[in-house]
Amino acid sequence: MLVPAETTIEPTVTTATAGNESYQALVWRRFRRSFTGMLGLVLVCALLIMAVFAGFLAPVDPMLSEDSFMPPESISIHDQEGNLVMPRVYPIVDSDKLDPITFQPISGPDYENPRVLGFFVTGFEYKLFGIIPSTIHFFGSTDGKPVHFLGTDKLGRDILSRAIYGSRISLMIALTVVTIVTAIGTTVGMVSGYLGGAFDTWTQRFVELVLAFPQLPLYLALTSLIPVTAPTNVFLGFVIVVMSALGWAQMSREVRGKTLALARIEYVKAAIAIGATDRRIIFQHIFPNVMSHVIVAVTLNIPTIVLLESFLGFLGFAVKPPLISWGLMLQDTANYSVIGSYPWILAPVGFVLVTVFAFNALGDGLRDAIDPY
């Protein structure tokens, strides 16, 4: 009789690799799928780099004055005979010929004195990070002479360099205001929504009072209280305080709504049952869960502040010279005849539009990644 041989069956070991992804990694994986979100992230990083390294990126001293309303100088890779040469700019100069109608000198490129362009060139002196003196610039003319890629304003100052420097003030105001608004609004909203009762009732009545104010007339009225002779840092600080005082209420209302829903969840009730303090419950259990909404709200509030600062600067109620901001630069566009004759002074509008688009795209991408449903 044949006895079948024993067959040993080895169990198949399956290693589970799925399901161990952290929440941050999951959000990042979702966010990477959004083209607009990634584009917004790249643009935001570029704007922050431009603000930090403004002196390195600006090709011309923003305070240097030359001829007013000079047109933008285009980059050329050909000489007068059409031969390929290194990238250069031909300055616009007045010729000896007169226009037969206006009898004004006819302007044209000066082919005899080209300004060769290059990277990491020597220019005006600035302080990197406000500490390290340097004269190296990312791009510009190799001979150190000014090149106006976006033309000059009414005082003959380079528009591109001033726009790059203006990003510092505009973004600094936006980031500072949003930080203050987020801190106050998030704290008040969580405490009010969690405690409830009479405290919540009176807090919300005060929030409604702040929201009921017509913000634009109030901005103009409050900022006009500062005398024109006040130091620029005092005026700038007052503008930040005014924007923050009128902007926290909406954030508080949104966070309160999220807190009211979270306060009824089981883990919060369990924390209350074991005797956890209100402070621990608010900041250890509720705050991490409203953080996703706060991050999205921050990215969507920054372009609002940038637009508001630009509008107030255009009216002359935000930043005073010698500080530079995009809104202050737009004061030159108040005259329609100037816009028609010198349209390049609208260049700061492009920086504002790119900033608004970048933060809105980033906020939309984060919102879809954090809450895809």
Distance between the termini: 68 Å
> What's the β-strand tally?
6
Structural class: alpha+beta
Radius of gyration over C-alpha positions, nearest whole angstrom: 29 Å
Order of helices and strands: HHHEEEEEEHHHHHHHHH
Task: Give the overall silhouette.
Answer: elongated
- Quote the beta fraction: 5-15%
In the predicted model, the low-confidence regions spanning at least 5 consecutive residues are: 5-18
Question: Which short descriptors sum up this protein?
Answer:
12 helices; about 375 residues; about 10% strand; elongated; two-stranded antiparallel ribbon; four-stranded antiparallel β-sheet; alpha+beta
Report on this model:
- The chain is α+β, with helices and mostly antiparallel strands.
- It is 55% helix and 12% strand.
- The chain has twelve helices and six strands.
- The chain has a four-stranded antiparallel sheet with strand order 1-2-5-6. Strands 3-4 form a two-stranded antiparallel ribbon.
- A hairpin with a 6-residue loop joins strand 3 and strand 4 (105-109).
- The radius of gyration is 29 Å and the shape is elongated.
- The termini are far apart.
- The model is unreliable at 5-18 (pLDDT under 50).
TL;DR?
The chain has 373 residues and is α+β, with helices and mostly antiparallel strands. The protein has helices at residues 23-32, 35-52, 54-57, 159-195, 197-212, 215-223, 232-262, 266-273, 278-315, 326-329, 336-341, 347-370, and strands at 75-78, 84-89, 92-98, 105-109, 115-128, 132-141. The strands form 2 sheets. A 4-stranded antiparallel sheet has the order 1-2-5-6. A two-stranded antiparallel sheet has the order 3-4.
